[in-house]
UniProtKB/TrEMBL annotation:
Involved in the TonB-dependent energy-dependent transport of various receptor-bound substrates. Protects ExbD from proteolytic degradation and functionally stabilizes TonB. It is a multi-pass membrane protein. Its main location: membrane. The chain crosses the membrane at residues 22-40, 126-149, 173-194. This is Biopolymer transport protein ExbB. Keywords: Cell inner membrane, Cell membrane, Membrane, Protein transport, Transmembrane, Transmembrane helix, Transport. Belongs to the exbB/tolQ family.
Length: 218
């Protein structure tokens, strides 16, 4: 007769109470949200990095309009192309606050706005990944602590204190800590990797903006 497995997720789920189940559902939702942002941001960042070499093609174009067309075609995420496109219309109307600025100040304002917009776009979702990576282990630990408390309460109420009666429920409760780590580790790794690539993109945007400022300020 095969040995009975006293440590299993099914047994933990059967013995758990609504609080234990709620913690498990929270971890499941955190995992789903985490993987959604991991896949979505990985695809978006890949497209941004794929468009980065088009910056050289922009400066190799014969005219500004040709350069913008080439950059727009390559920049599917709209991170680099809006800078020169908005630079074409950097002069405000005569009856606006922007129009009262000098030409150099208007260029700086427009480029700064576009960099800010691009920064918000490429960094969106990273806060969610960082939050999940930081809190998921503690949510799992909460499930473990509550599972151990629930198991000890059940054993105490039964009036039978034996090591085999305690080891099983306590061991099963530790599963929640493992689940918390399983949720947190991919989120932390993805956050670090995406943050590293975003820093490269922001550095390129900053350099591109300086070059455009020199070009438009001629």
């Amino acid at each position: 007769m095969p040995p009975v497995n006293h440590f299993s997720v099914a047994r933990y789920w059967e013995q758990g109470d609504p609080i234990s189940h709620a913690v498990a559902y929270v971890l499941m939702m955190m995992s789903l949200v985490s993987w959604f942002f991991i896949l979505f941001k990985a695809f978006s960042t890949w497209r941004v990095r794929r468009a980065a070499p088009a910056l050289d093609a922009f400066w190799s174009a014969p005219t500004l309009h040709d350069g913008i067309a080439l950059l727009t075609l390559a920049d599917r995420e709209g991170v680099y192309a809006p800078l020169p496109a908005q630079g074409l219309a950097h002069l405000g109307g005569a009856n606006t606050l922007a129009g009262a600025m000098s030409k150099d100040e208007q260029i700086i304002r427009v480029l700064r706005q576009e960099i800010t917009r691009a920064t918000h776009r490429i960094e969106s979702g990273l806060t969610v990944l960082a939050s999940i990576g930081a809190t998921a282990p503690f949510v799992g630990l909460l499930g473990t602590v509550w599972g151990i408390y629930h198991a000890l309460s059940t054993v105490s109420a039964a009036g039978i204190v034996q090591i085999d009666k305690i080891a099983g429920p306590v061991g099963e409760a530790l599963i929640m800590t493992g689940f918390g780590l399983v949720v947190a580790i991919p989120a932390v790794l993805a956050y670090n990797g995406l943050n590293r690539l975003n820093r490269l993109t922001l550095a390129e945007l900053d350099g591109f903006a300086h070059d455009l400022h020199s070009y438009f300020g001629r």
